[in-house]
């Protein structure tokens, strides 16, 4: 192997990790309980955090996490290794979220953190009140978005994923994801302005 080829080759540790993940997915596809447990232990926190940001209510988020992991052995048959296993799990959550969110708008737990963010040391009680009002208004505004735009906003703005990664998770072209994000931001801005926030 030439020096330039050696530089282009992935490190052995990366190859070993990728092989281990593919083996784990193969075990999932065979519905091995231990494999589901391993994936749950490694990734449930990330799936739960995403679900809470997306559907808002803790109980609905827990239901969503449950559905993701119960469906995992069957879904694993569609895993092609084009993304990480964690990204694949988030894409399953997006699909199940469509069922959870269509019924009724839910409050956004993720925006509760705005209320809890520390204010500057010289803040006034009025600033604290305004921050809480803004957090509630953001939550209401996010509730008003169609699910696809809500998914785009949570993935790209809250979780700070790239539009490429977000598009892969949602199973849409990158251009579609960028368009959804654009419309989500526009609608959120309009809703916030209507409530007096500029």
Describe this structure in words.
With 198 residues, the protein is mainly α. It is built from eleven helices and no strands. The chain folds into two domains: 12-102, RNA polymerase sigma factor, region 2, helix turn helix motif (Rna Polymerase Sigma Factor, Chain: A, Orthogonal Bundle), CATH 1.10.1740; 109-194, Winged helix-like DNA-binding domain superfamily/Winged helix DNA-binding domain (Arc Repressor Mutant, subunit A), CATH 1.10.10.10.
The major beta sheet can be summarized as: none
Q: Tell me the name of the CATH class of the largest domain.
A: Mainly Alpha
Outline = elongated
Regions with pLDDT < 50 over 5+ consecutive residues?
1-12, 103-116
What gap, in angstroms, lies between the N and C termini? 60 Å
Helix content: over 70%
Task: Compute the number of strand runs.
Answer: 0
Number of domain modules = 2
Q: What is the average per-residue confidence, as pLDDT, rounded to a whole number? A: 77
Q: In the CATH hierarchy, what is the architecture of the largest domain at level 2?
A: Orthogonal Bundle
- Gyration radius, to the nearest Å? 20 Å
Strand residue content = under 5%
CATH topology of the largest domain: Rna Polymerase Sigma Factor, Chain: A
Class by helix and strand content?
mainly alpha
Name given to the CATH homologous superfamily of the largest domain: RNA polymerase sigma factor, region 2, helix turn helix motif
SS field, number of helical segments: 11
Please trace the helix and strand order, writing H or E for each element.
HHHHHHHHHHH
């Amino acid at each position: 192997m030439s020096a330039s080829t050696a530089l282009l080759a992935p490190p052995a540790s990366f190859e070993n990790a990728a092989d281990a993940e593919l083996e784990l997915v193969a075990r999932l596809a065979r519905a091995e309980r231990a494999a589901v447990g391993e994936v749950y232990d490694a990734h449930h926190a990330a799936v739960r955090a995403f679900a809470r940001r997306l559907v808002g209510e803790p109980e609905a988020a827990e239901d969503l996490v449950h559905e993701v992991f119960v469906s995992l052995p069957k879904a694993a048959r569609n895993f092609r290794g084009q993304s990480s296993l964690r990204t694949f799990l988030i894409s399953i959550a997006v699909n199940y979220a469509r069922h959870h969110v269509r019924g009724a708008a839910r409050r956004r737990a993720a925006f509760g953190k705005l209320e809890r963010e520390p204010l500057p040391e010289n803040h006034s009680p009025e600033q604290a009140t305004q921050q809480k009002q803004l957090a509630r208004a953001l939550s209401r505004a996010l509730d008003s978005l169609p699910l696809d735009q809500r998914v785009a906003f949570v993935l790209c703005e809250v979780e700070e994923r790239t539009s490429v990664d977000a598009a892969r998770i949602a199973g849409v072209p990158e251009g579609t994801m960028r368009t959804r994000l654009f419309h989500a931001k526009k609608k959120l801005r309009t809703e916030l302005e209507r409530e007096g926030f500029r």
